[in-house]
Automatic annotation (TrEMBL), chains A, B:
GO MF annotations, alphabetized: aspartate kinase activity; ATP binding
Keyword flag Amino-acid biosynthesis: yes
PROSITE patterns: ACT (PS51671), ASPARTOKINASE (PS00324)
EC class of the enzyme, as a word: transferase
Catalytic activity: L-aspartate + ATP = 4-phospho-L-aspartate + ADP
Native source species: Tistlia consotensis USBA 355
A Gene Ontology biological process term: lysine biosynthetic process via diaminopimelate
Name of protein: Aspartokinase
List of residues binding ATP: 7-10, 174-175, 180, 185, 210-211
InterPro entries named in the record: AceGlu_kinase-like_sf, ACT-like_dom_sf, ACT_Aspartokinase, ACT_dom, AKii-LysC-BS, Asp/Glu/Uridylate_kinase, Asp_kin_monofn, Asp_kinase
Length: 407, 407
């Protein structure tokens, strides 16, 4: 007997037939003698529709009201799944965030879970009742308002609930059958990964792999929740996200990811003086523009410096505005922007003990005539910025170079 | 300065443009210096969709889960209206049933409001904040579950809130501009009624006029809440529902209504003995079949009796099953059913002091050759059951006979 949390995303609960399919999976776990909590997203498309309504209502809106609106889709799914489960003789009840409660801070729109009071749930789960929990939402106890956890927040709901329940496992059911060495739509020889470390999964999620929300992986890592990613629609063991010690044979590189969500800004001939970087990036940070990769070169004239950095495409316009508005604080000759870039990353905890991983990346790309614009590295990751038109070629070349291709 | 409750139904909040129109009306009341609470329904069609989902999920469902599902539409509207109001500089916040809370009993699907804790609302309304309240829903405090008040329940939410807030007025905005002497789609010469008594409005609502939920009128009458029915889409003073004393010139008959929601059951040659009526209607009541009109005649053979009564069409099948199942408790020769009937009622508090009102009805119908099948009367109402094909003819004839036609 185990205590498990199962999470189903929007495509897995898109209509009543799919909700019945979910109920099959839940009923099977109950029949196997497990204590089960289920976390559900809104039916596919519902949250987007509600977000759209909020945008139509006002250009700038009160995030407390936005949360009250967009959280409603999950309540519907939780109630419907409970009805379907009861209909096949499985005891179940739905729980909204405020009913448990799932306590969060007051950062509406992207709130952080602070505590989940699970006593009631544990008692009822032990008595054989499935807890069907509305994902994505929480409750801010001071003003007694509903909060939401940000897009993809149901993953975080599930992992946080698993941590609070001290669950043996958190199964994330989605529309793919696991985490892959690379996007299989681009690299046909990509392989499903059986086991991956928290650290790698975190880098994969933050470097463009869309299978899990980054914050949910952070939380799983912090609380050592064993997470499994698997498909709602086909049988399989999926991918297990676990501690490094639990992986016997560790590949040097576990996966190759990409993100098209980048835009490059270059400031030419910035007058070089101490504090110029702070002068540039301070105002951007204040305007909540996230700067990712940064590179600073000496200019041809040796007196000034060229500064290149990347922001998300959504932030590009705002970033340019902020820079223009602060031109009195730092001098530069010209600003150029480039949206036709992609960030490609290779990720693997094996890098820590293997030299030459970055070198292999540079060689593989050079061999195909792909110019590297910016490089950043971390302990278990190397990322490069290249022209977007080379995306597919770069991914396939790197996937082969690191020996990841399926036989 | 007054304290008012404004209620907007589903067609009044069907999309963002209409929600903006609602915000105009609310903003105008705030600008006039009033303290305002607004009760909103779900966007038109949403509740039907959610009810449909519940029906698809299971044939018989847990009403607690049904309530969790179908209550969500109102939360969306309340949030969106708050955003739109804030966008035009009007302070506003949304309130879900559990947040206020609106305390109800545990009769899920058709719960009764027991108490509304309005201290917080009153304080904020006095500070100029509009309270935007999700209609149709409440909170059952023992199990901490969401309840709903039954279809059309937002009217009841509004009146109950007006009573709890000791509001000066409860304005029910709908898609018609008031209460009419008869359905204007059938009787072209129907007139809008300027003032109507609670008692008449209650009979109108329960005898088929769909403009207000019956229970909301009962509650308005009990707490003496002045209710006004008016249009969201055109200017006008609407219809005021008030105490009898506030109406100076009272017509004998105020309105003519009809209900197609009737079905007639006749049991022939029932063995007549004391207690036979109880034997028939007891089991029906136990099966929650509401019996409306009843008439009992001596049969041709003088030894037995014929029993005719009406139930709603939705209950007909169940009523027939119950009667067949209890045939051992009372004997009869034959049962016949008739769905092609309509109940036509004339309503007016003036009847109390005027004789001959019923007689005028019988004459007017006889003159057109319309046969009356069943008659029931109350202090301020006469209802007859006739063949459905005569509906329009009967309504127009009665409307003219009682002098209600517009000039």
């Amino acid at each position: 007997m185990a205590r498990i949390v199962m999470k189903f995303g929007g495509t897995s609960v898109a209509d009543l037939d799919r909700i019945r399919n979910v109920a099959d999976k839940v009923a099977a776990e109950v029949a196997a003698g497990n204590e089960v909590a289920v976390v559900v997203s809104a039916m596919a498309g519902v949250t987007n529709q509600l977000v759209g309504y909020a945008g139509q209502a006002a250009r700038l809106y009160d995030l407390r009201e936005y949360d009250a609106v967009v959280s409603s889709g999950e309540n519907v799914t939780a109630g419907l799944l409970s009805i379907v489960l009861q209909d096949r003789g499985v005891q179940a009840r739905s729980w909204q965030g405020w009913q448990i409660p799932i306590l969060t801070d007051g950062a509406h729109g992207s709130a952080r879970i602070e505590k989940i009071e699970v006593e009631d749930l544990l008692r009822r789960m032990a008595a054989g009742e499935v807890a069907v929990v509305a994902g994505f939402q929480g409750f801010e106890p001071v003003r007694r308002r509903i909060t939401t956890l940000g897009r993809g927040g149901s993953d975080t709901s599930a992992v946080a609930l698993a941590a609070a329940l001290k669950a043996d496992r958190c199964d994330i059911y989605t529309d793919v059958d696991g985490v892959y060495t690379c996007d299989p739509r681009i690299v046909q020889r990509a392989r499903k990964i059986d086991r991956i470390t928290y650290e790698e999964m975190l880098e994969m999620a933050s470097q463009g792999a869309k299978v899990l929300q980054t914050r949910s992986v952070e939380m799983a890592m912090k609380h050592r929740v064993p997470v499994r990613v698997l498909s709602s629609f086909q049988e399989g063991t999926g991918t297990l996200v676990v501690d490094e010690e639990e992986i016997v044979e560790q590949a040097v590189v576990s996966g190759v990811t990409y993100s098209r969500d980048e835009a490059k800004i270059t400031l030419r001939n910035v007058t070089d003086r101490p504090g110029v970087a702070a002068a540039i990036f301070g105002p951007l940070a204040e305007a909540s523009v996230n700067v990712d990769m940064i590179v600073q070169n000496i200019s041809a004239d040796q007196q000034t410096t060229d500064m290149t950095f990347t922001v998300t495409r959504a932030d590009l316009e705002r970033a340019v505005e902020v820079i223009e508005a602060n031109r009195d604080k730092f001098d530069f000759k010209a600003m150029s922007i480039d949206k036709n870039v992609v960030k490609v990353s290779v990720i693997g905890v094996g890098m820590r003990s293997h030299a030459g991983v970055a070198q292999m990346m540079f060689s593989a790309l050079a061999e195909k005539g792909i110019n590297i614009q910016v490089i950043t590295t971390s302990e278990i990751k190397v990322s490069v910025l290249i022209a977007e038109e080379y995306t597919e070629l770069a991914l396939r070349s790197l996937h082969s170079a690191y020996g990841l291709d399926a036989a």
